[in-house]
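Whiteboard transcription, Tuesday session. T.W. wrote the structure tokens on the left side:
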């Protein structure tokens, strides 16, 4: 709890209460480095809401959120269960503190559970009791991957996503949001350095590299774009700073 955690910093930027002093101090430091960074958390949640509701509109009723951190303000299970109470969500994270927070949040929630596991343990995650109870692998799943930019190339992020893709049914969808190497933000290098205090380094990638993570999924319109530009529904879904709108790339793809 004395070491900042990206998920709790994200929660702080959203105005949530699942954060500690160390998280708030580093979050404020990063705001000073890159004013408007709070918008990244807000736009990311807005994209995930739009993408999740799109999946519900496509008939998806079960979701696997890998690397979920803390289900914070506007969390996935509340979004989809508000659209259809029959929706089920399994969260996955390796951090014990994030999992403990999630367990508290889900204490009175139905149709939602959390697993403590590394995201690359595809077999273990899909064979877990929570997955067996809440997920039917013979039916389409919404695979939500919001944290691949915390995985170095040595872990083979594309291979990890391919492992899930091979196990889930046709008609399943991938929801991906990933940090970019944005040349219009010279402050980004200092932000990346600041994140090293969290023990979770950032590994932003180019558009081409992120597109490779989507291999095997047919991207729906508008493809892989800045998260502020993925089917925005109003002015609150984007930032007045164009560079912020492109700080994460976002996409939704369907497994044929």
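and on the right, the sequence the group agreed on:
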């Amino acid at each position: 709890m004395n070491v900042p955690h990206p998920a709790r910093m994200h929660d702080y930027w959203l105005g949530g209460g699942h954060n500690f002093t160390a998280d708030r101090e580093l979050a404020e430091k990063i705001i000073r480095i890159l004013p408007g960074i709070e918008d990244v958390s807000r736009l990311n949640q807005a994209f995930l809401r739009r993408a999740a509701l799109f999946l519900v509109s496509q008939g998806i009723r079960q979701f696997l959120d890998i690397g979920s951190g803390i289900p914070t303000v506007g969390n996935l299970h509340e979004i989809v269960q508000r659209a259809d109470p029959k929706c089920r969500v399994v969260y996955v994270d390796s951090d014990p503190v994030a999992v403990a927070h999630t367990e508290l949040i889900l204490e009175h929630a139905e149709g939602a559970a959390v697993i403590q596991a590394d995201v690359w343990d595809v077999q273990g995650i899909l064979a877990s009791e929570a997955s067996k109870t809440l997920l039917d692998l013979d039916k389409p799943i919404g695979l939500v991957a919001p944290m691949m930019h915390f995985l170095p190339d040595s872990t083979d992020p594309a291979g990890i996503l391919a492992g899930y893709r091979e196990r889930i049914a046709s008609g399943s969808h991938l929801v991906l949001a990933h940090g970019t190497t944005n040349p219009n933000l010279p402050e980004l290098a200092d932000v990346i350095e600041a994140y090293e205090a969290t023990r979770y380094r950032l590994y932003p990638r180019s558009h081409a590299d992120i597109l490779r993570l989507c291999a095997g999924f047919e991207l729906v319109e508008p493809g892989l774009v800045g998260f502020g530009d993925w089917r925005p529904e109003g002015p609150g879904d984007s930032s007045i700073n164009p560079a912020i709108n492109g700080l994460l790339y976002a996409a939704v793809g369907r497994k044929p």
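Someone added at the bottom: The chain has one domain: 42-185+205-254.
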